[in-house]
Design brief:
binds 1,4-dihydronicotinamide adenine dinucleotide, 19 strands, alpha/beta, single chain, binds magnesium ion
C-alpha cells in the first residue's frame, strides 16, 4: 500500500451472502463465485453463486412480502427509503472503497457520482411513495358514470444489474420500484457483487420487512436467465448489453412480463468552431474516459469542426498523456483498470480492429504493462483514434472502454447526419457559443439525452433513457415510476 492508498474495506464486516426473505443464506447448491480485484487480478473473496432454486426462493419471498409492503402506510415506506438513502450517505467512504476494489473505478469518481446519486435516488423516491395518485376522469360520452383511476404496483420486480455502476444501478431500479409499492429481487453482475451485498446489510439494518428487497448474486446464465424467465416475476428492469436485453425480452414472453431495457449506446459529441475549446476538451475527456470509458452514455464519437480540429486534438492529447493509471483505491490514480480481463481484451480488440481498418492511434497502446505490483491488473491506456470512417466497427458498436474516435467536419447538416448514423440513441453532446444553433441541433439529434456545453450530468429528477436500440423505459425522475405502475380504471354507475 502506498502512502496515498486508503485502507481496504473490511470485507469481513459484510455478510456477503444472499438475502432471501430477510435471511442471509448460501446458494442452495453450495456453488461459489470468485470476486477478483481488477487492479491485480487476484481473488478478493468468494460469494454465493445462485442458481434457479435460489431465484425461485427469492421470487417466492418477494411475492409473499407484497401484501405486507402494500399494506404498510406509504409514509412508513417513505421513511424506510429515506433511511436507506441517509445510511448510504453516511457509509459513502466505505462504499466508495468497495466499488474501487471490486469494479476498479477510482474512489474519487465513486464519491463524486456513484455514492451521492445512489443516496439521493432513495431519498427522492421516498418523496414519491406518498404521491402515487390516480385521477378522476369525466367520460367523453357524458355517461352517468363516475370513473377514477388507481395507480397500482406491477408486483414482483426482477432487477438485472451491470458491473459499470454496481451500487448506483441497484438504486436506479430499487428506488422507483419500492416507492411504487413493488417488491424486488436484485441480481448484481457477477463481476461486481460486493456493493449489492453490502446494500443488503443496510436494507436489513434500516428495517425493511423481510422479502421486500432480495439480493441474489450469480452469473447471467445461472441466475439472470431464470429470473428473466420466472413466471412469478411481473417485471424485469435491465441495464447491459443489447444482445442480453434481447434474450431477456425473449424470456419475458411466456408470462408477458413488463420489461425496461437500458442498452447502452454509441453517442456522438460535436464540437463546433465557436465552442469554448478548453471547456469542450475538458467535457470531452469526461464524455469519453470517465469510469475508464465503461459508460453507456460514453460520447466517444467526437466530431470536431475543421477550423479547431488540430488545436482540439492537441489539447486532448496533452490531457491523455498526463493520465496516471493505477489502483482505484489510490489518491494518485486518474484512471483505474477495466472491470475484467475479458473487458480489457474486448477493448484492445476494438482498437486493433480499427487499426487494421486504417485508423491512426495517436494516443494509447493497448494493455498497459505497469512496472509494479499492479501488473496483473486489467489496465488499458486511454486511446485516441483519428482517420476513422463511419463504417468501422469502433464507430458502430459499443466499445465500453477508454477509446475516443475523432472525426473532422465542416457542415452542420452533414455532422447531424453523421451523428444520427447509428442504431443507438442514448445520448449526445454538442459544444457551441451560438444558442440558436445549440437548440436547433439538439432537436435534430436522435437521443434520449442531449447535453449542450457539458456532458454526462445526471440529476435524480431528470428522466434518462434511450431512443432506438438503446432501449426503452425511462429511469430517474417522475417518469421512472411509470414502468413500475399499472393503471386500473374503476367505474361506478350514477344513473
Ligand atoms: P451483460 O449485458 O451480459 O451483463 C449485464 C447483466 O446481465 C449481468 O448481471 C449479467 O449477469 C446479466 N446477464 C447476462 N446474460 C443474461 C441472460 N441470458 N439472462 C439474464 N441476465 C443475463 O454485459 P457484459 O457481458 O457484462 O458486458 C458486455 C458488453 O455489454 C460491454 O462491453 C458493454 O458494451 C455492454 N454493457 C453495457 C452496459 C450499459 O450500461 N449499457 C453495462 C454493462 C455492459
Ligand atoms: Mg454478457
Amino acid at each position: 500500500m502506498t502512502a496515498t492508498e486508503v485502507p481496504l474495506p473490511d470485507l469481513e464486516a459484510s455478510e456477503l451472502r444472499l438475502l432471501i426473505g430477510g435471511e442471509r443464506v448460501d446458494a442452495a447448491a453450495g456453488e461459489r463465485l470468485e470476486v477478483l480485484n481488477p487492479a491485480t487480478g487476484e481473488v478478493l473473496v468468494e460469494v454465493p453463486a445462485a442458481g434457479a432454486a435460489d431465484v425461485d426462493a427469492a421470487v417466492a419471498a418477494a411475492r409473499e412480502a407484497l401484501p405486507v409492503w402494500l399494506s404498510m402506510a406509504p409514509a412508513r415506506r417513505a421513511e424506510l427509503l429515506w433511511d436507506l438513502g441517509t445510511r448510504l450517505a453516511e457509509l459513502s467512504e466505505e462504499f466508495a472503497s468497495l466499488e474501487a476494489l471490486d469494479n476498479g473505478k477510482t474512489r474519487g469518481e465513486a464519491l463524486m457520482v456513484d455514492l451521492p446519486l445512489s443516496s439521493e435516488i432513495f431519498r427522492y423516491y421516498a418523496g414519491w411513495a406518498t404521491k402515487i395518485e390516480g385521477s378522476t376522469i369525466p367520460t367523453a360520452s357524458g355517461l352517468a358514470q363516475h370513473v377514477y383511476t388507481r395507480r397500482e404496483p406491477v408486483g414482483v420486480v426482477g432487477a438485472i444489474i451491470p458491473w459499470n455502476f454496481p451500487l448506483l444501478m441497484c438504486a436506479y431500479k430499487a428506488g422507483p420500484s419500492l416507492a411504487a409499492g413493488n417488491t424486488i429481487v436484485i441480481k448484481p453482475a457477477e463481476q461486481t457483487p460486493l456493493s449489492a451485498l453490502r446494500l443488503a446489510d443496510v436494507v436489513q439494518e434500516v428495517g425493511f420487512p423481510p422479502g421486500v428487497v432480495n439480493v441474489v448474486t450469480g452469473d447471467g446464465p445461472s441466475a439472470g436467465a431464470p429470473l428473466a424467465a420466472h413466471p412469478g416475476v411481473d417485471k424485469i428492469t435491465f441495464t447491459g448489453e443489447t444482445g442480453t436485453g434481447q434474450k431477456i425480452l425473449e424470456a419475458s414472453k411466456a408470462n408477458l412480463k413488463r420489461v425496461s431495457l437500458e442498452l447502452g449506446g454509441k453517442s456522438p459529441n460535436i464540437v463546433f468552431a465557436d465552442a469554448d475549446l478548453d471547456a469542450a476538451v475538458e467535457g470531452t475527456y469526461g464524455a469519453v474516459y470517465f469510469n475508464q470509458g465503461q459508460c453507456c452514455i460514453a460520447g466517444a464519437r467526437v466530431y470536431v469542426h475543421e477550423d479547431v480540429h488540430d488545436v482540439f486534438v492537441e489539447k486532448l492529447l496533452a490531457k491523455l498523456t498526463a493520465i496516471r493509471l493505477g489502483s482505484g483505491l489510490s489518491a494518485d490514480t486518474d484512471m483505474g483498470p477495466l472491470v475484467s480481463s475479458e473487458q480489457a481484451a474486448r477493448v484492445t480488440g476494438y482498437i486493433d480492429s480499427a487499426l487494421a481498418e486504417g485508423a491512426t492511434e495517436i494516443a494509447g497502446g493497448g494493455r498497459a504493462r505497469l512496472e509494479d505490483e499492479l501488473s496483473g491488473g486489467y489496465f488499458v491506456r486511454p486511446a485516441l483514434l483519428t482517420d476513422v470512417t463511419p463504417e468501422m466497427r469502433v464507430m458502430r458498436e459499443e466499445i465500453f472502454g477508454p477509446v475516443g474516435m475523432v472525426s473532422r467536419f465542416s457542415d452542420e447538416e452533414a455532422v447531424i447526419a453523421a451523428a444520427n448514423d447509428t442504431q443507438f440513441g442514448l445520448a449526445a453532446g454538442l459544444w457551441t457559443a451560438d444558442v440558436k444553433r445549440a437548440h436547433r441541433v439538439a432537436a435534430e439529434l436522435h437521443a434520449g439525452t442531449v447535453w449542450i456545453n457539458t456532458y454526462g450530468f445526471f440529476d435524480v429528477a431528470v428522466p434518462y433513457g434511450g431512443f432506438q436500440m438503446s432501449g426503452y423505459g425511462k429511469e430517474l425522475g417522475r417518469e421512472a415510476l411509470d414502468p413500475y405502475l399499472q393503471t386500473k380504471s374503476v367505474w361506478t354507475d350514477l344513473s
